[in-house]
Sequence to fold (352 residues):
Amino acid sequence: MQRHLAPGCLSSSRLFIMAGQFDRDSKAQHLNAKVISMASGLSVATTPTAGQPLLRFEFADPSAANSWPLGLPGLGGDLPRELWQAEGSCSEGQTGQVHWRRIGDLLAARLVLDDPPDSDPSERVNQAYHQLIGCIRELGFPHLIRAWNYMPGINEGEGDSERYRRFCAGRAQALDALTLLESELSACTAIGTEEPRLRIYLLAGRSPALHIENPRQLSAYRYPRQYGPRSPSFARATAMQGQDNETVLMISGTASVVGHETRHVGDVVAQAGEIVTNIETLLEHSAKQTGNDGLRAFNHQSLVRVYVRDPADWPQVETRFRQAWPEAKLAAFRGDICRSDLLVEIEAVTTA
Fold:
């Protein structure tokens, strides 16, 4: 293992990211009693705020220095980047094939592997998650906060041989072996790309965050057998304390799924409308779970990624989402959704 103080990382004795509970007197005092402590101090914005960048996603210029690319063609929007920032001492290094960067009590880890789209990804994914979870645990950041997965040919293959189902099987095998509980699963995205690489990005913390389900949807890890031998492993959203006593809510990839069933097959506008209803339900539930009424609706600090299967659908999808969320910023990408009958998916991060 190699560890060093990275260029551009400011050494500081001040740790803004406190490893502890939400202040009992704060607006988050009504958090679910099962949550003992939460990682804190994250800021997600389009411009630099207090602290240093832990994760940098440059959408307008994916080749920019220190950007973590998605491997997807951009389609437009008014969201040029996401800067995931924190305050505290900063270091970065590499453990095996995993590159990592930590600031205070948060750590970002990435692993990029060759992934031929005509191959079975299950063992590759199994080993990748073993490496990633092993790394974050070894470094002292055992709690998952957010995960992103980008892979080629996500809908290739029939039945249980579909690459996404094989991905889910490999991930579940690793998480089982690592004894990661359903209650520890975080917000997550899985999107199909055209490049022959598997990209897995993780955000982890020294303390646990609050993982939230959507009352309108069956928990993904409880999906019935018809969706594959192993269910997807993620929560619908994850909340944590941000800077200035705000709450950061990270919303998983969300599509036109009610219960566990796809709705509005073949109608992209109707699917977009169902996504709006799913998101609004999740926001309302998250506000109750955190005791923060500011999370009941998207605001000017809400950043939304939109994944569209057919680029020609983006203009009408954009119109629908901007009608629903006029203050939010959107970035759109050409990407394949985990089910072949889903035409659009979004993820979001919002602060209140």
Observations:
- The CA atoms of residues 317 and 323 lie 10 Å apart.
